Each structure stands twice: as structure tokens, then as C-alpha cells.
Amino acid sequence: MLPCGHAANAAEARGCAHLVVERPPDHYGWFTGVGLAYDLLCGECSKDDDPRSHLIVVCVGCADRVDDYSDLLGWFGQPEIRHRDTEPHGMWTTADCAVEPVNGRCVAALPGGWLVLTEAGLVEIDQAGSRFVAPVSLAVEPPDRLPADPPRPALHTSPDGRYAAVVTDFGRYGVVLDLVTGAPVRSLDRGDYRYRHASYPVAFLESGAGTVVVTATDWNRLDAFDLASGRLLTERETSWSGDGPKPEHYLDYFHGALLTGPSGRWLLDDGWVWSPSGMPVVHDVAAWLGGDVYATEHGRGLSVRDSWDHPMAWVDEHIAAIQPIGRYDQPAVAGVEVYDVVDGRRVGAFAGPAGRMWGHDGLLYVVTVTGLEIWDPEDGARTGVVAGFTPIAHNPRTGRFAELTGGRLRTWTPAS
Ligand SMILES: [Zn+2]
Ligand SMILES: [Zn+2]
Asked: Across residues 346-352, what is the average pLDDT?
């Protein structure tokens, strides 16, 4: 028999006695320092000088009842953060480069170098120097009073380096350019509803036929276009007047930042739903482009979170990582959640990583003020820090990272 009055079982927890009632009061989580485990405390006990003296062992049923019927208002203490750093090995290059990216970060990978969005337009850079590619003219964003993140330009490149998308994150418009001719080939417009609340939904992928751009054409609709022909690949009916019964394929979801998986089969969508809550969703692009035209109306929701537009990355073809740790009803904890996108379930979480993030070769790379941290999602530990290196772009094929600041281009490629 446990102190809560119920039979002992393997998965017991600890909490104060005030929470072992039919309708527990709101509570706090007190990290034990082992992984993400935490003890449960009522508001009074959380203020005590010695909260530990109030803890009793409770059964999993009592702990679940606290989770179900009371809100977790905040955290105390620190979760375990695992560091087992060793010296990172990689290859460096350094070159003078006076090209200045917009916002200090609008740089994207090309097969042989990097593409930079500057005030004058697109510039290609590599170790040998720089070459002006094309001016960029974006549609003027409509004035908007909504107090969301300010609109800002963002740059994406296709895997083969043929195309670039210049878009306005937290804005409505964008453009796709052909980097060979320098000409715009497609205007992007995600519609006039609530576009100020998320990064621009756009991603490139290579299909058997050629390069495809996936982008939102309305708040709740993604489309795919073949860029060589301009052809719409995902013709379907998705509109609904709001009268009568909801159509079978109607989607009540605001698309957000898109991230293509390593093989191009899966697409991670960092969108949101009312109330508002963040809801990362995975789309099966192979099925969608293979004829299941409503596949993106029926994506796989991974979780419901209290916010969105956070760093996310692919660890491998089936595993995605999303910052921070959190649910819609709990304060977030700095760290990473790991999801199996095929099963659509969370397979791990660990505290520590916080910052812009890329995945490569099964590892996560996270930029902090002090450098590039390397995390192993298998055991949730930091395995190294490339000190003083704060990259702004990554080439997913070569693994190379680029930092462009102070008139200097530095790259680092982790040893494989
Ligand atoms: Zn208490
Ligand atoms: Zn119990």
C-alpha cells in the first residue's frame, strides 16, 4: 500500500498530500534532476523552504488525476541536462567576403556555395568570390495592425540550386526565381487571412519530373507546382462557404513553416489551430503527388503545443526534432521533443538545446551565443561545441555550415 492509499505499482510518482484528492488544486512541477522527471506540489507547498518534506509516494492513478484535473502552473528546479562533450572534428574554410545578408541571416545553400539575399538582390558566394545573380522585387506587404512578429524576408533554395524563393515571413507574399536566368518564375500569395501569425509556408523538393515548390495558396491550403512547366500538381476543391455540413476534406488548420525531410517524402508543417495552439503536422508528399490529392488535408498531427514557429529539424528520414518541450496546457521547457513521423508519436524528449537548429547524419546542431552545439538525440546528450562559430546556413547534402559576418565567410563541415 502506498501513502496515497492505493496499491503499489511499478510506475509510481511523488507529490504532496494536498494533491491526493478527488479534484486536485492547480499544481507546480519540481524537477528531480533525473531526466525530465518531476514531483508534484500544490501552490502552498511550492512556497515552502523545504518542499521535499511534503512529498509522499503516490500511485500512477493519483498522478494522472492531478494531470487531468488541475493545471501545471510552473516549474521549479532544473531538469537534467546531459553533457558529454568531446572535441568536435571537422573541416574549416575561411575567405574574405564583403557580401552582407539582409537581417544578417538571409543565406541558403547552393550545391557549390551559398546564395545571399542582399539589399541589392541575390548574390552567389563561394570560396572564390561573389557573383551578382538577380535583383528581387517582392510585392509590398499590406499594412496590418496585428501585433504579431514583424514581417521579415527569408530565403530558401531548391536542392539542385536552380531555384530560390524569397518570401516574407509573417507576411503574405513571396516570389520564386530561376537562378540560371535570374527571372521570377512564380509569384507566391498565401491569401489574406491571418498570414501575420506564422513563417511563410514554402519548401522545395525534387520529384521524378523535376523541381517542385510546395507553398500555401490560402491559410488552410498547400499546393505543389512543377517549376519547369509552372503546372499545378495538386488540383482539388478545398473551399467551403461555411454553410451546410462541413465538406469531408475541409481543413481547419493554418499552415506554417515547412521543412522537407531528407528524402523528400515527408514534409513537416509548423502550423497552428484555434485556440490558438501550435500543431506540428507531417504530410506524406509522396502520396500527395502520387494522386492522393487530399493528403495535405489529412496530415498527421504530432502534438498540440502552446505556441509555434520554433526551431525544428530532421534527424533522419523518419525522425523529426522540435523545440521546445511542451504541451498546450503546460509552460514550455527549453529542450527538444523527438517524433517518429511514421507512427506519429513522440519517442523522446531531453532538456538543453535552445536556438536555431539543423539535423545532419543523425545529430542535431544548435546555434547559441557561444557556438554551435552538437546534440545526440539517441541519448539526449550534448556531445560537443564548436566554440565561437555561429552559422546562419547549412547545406543538408554536404553537411557544411556557413557563417557570414564581419566581411568573412567561414565554413565548417563535420567529419563523418
Ligand atoms: Zn501541498
Ligand atoms: Zn493513489
From this structure: 97
> If DSSP codes are grouped into helix, strand and coil, which group holds residue 349?
strand
All three cell numbers of 295: 493528403
Distance from the alpha carbon of residue 64 to the mean position of ligand 2, in angstroms: 9
- Tell me the H-state helices in 43-126: 43-47, 60-69
C-alpha 22 – ligand 1 centre gap (Å): 14
In tens, the pLDDT along 86-115 reads 999 999 999 999 999 999 999 999 999 999
Answer whether 0.90 is exceeded by the pTM. Answer: yes
Q: How far does the centroid of ligand 1 lie from the alpha carbon of residue 28, in Å? A: 10
Residue 53 CB neighbours (<10 A): 9
Please state, for a pLDDT cut of 70, what percent of the chain lies above it: 99
Adjacency order of strands within the sheet including 121-126: 107-110, 113-118, 121-126, 129-134
Rounded to the nearest angstrom, the distance between the alpha carbon of 117 and the centre of ligand 1 is 56
The number of the ligand nearest the C-alpha atom of 63 reads 2
CA of 2 to the centre of ligand 2 (A): 7
227 Cα to the center of ligand 1, angstroms: 61
Q: Nearest Cα to 210, choosing from 175, 176, 167, 160?
A: 160
Q: Which of 195, 194, 138 minimizes the C-alpha distance to 171?
A: 195
Q: For the chain, list the domains and their CATH numbers.
A: 13-80 (no CATH), 90-414 (2.130.10.10)
Asked if 386 contacts 414 with a C-beta cutoff of 8 angstroms, the reply is: no
Share of the chain above pLDDT 90, in %: 89
d(CA 6, CA 13): 12
Cα(38) to centroid of ligand 1, in Å? 15
The rounded Å distance from CA 18 to ligand 1 centre is 4
Q: What is the pLDDT of residue 127?
A: 84
Kind and range of the H or E run holding 409? strand 408-414
Question: Which strands form 381-387's sheet, in the order they lie side by side?
Answer: 82-83, 381-387, 371-376, 363-368, 357-360
pLDDT, tens digit, 9 for 90 and up, residues 276-317: 999 999 999 999 999 999 999 999 999 999 999 999 999 999
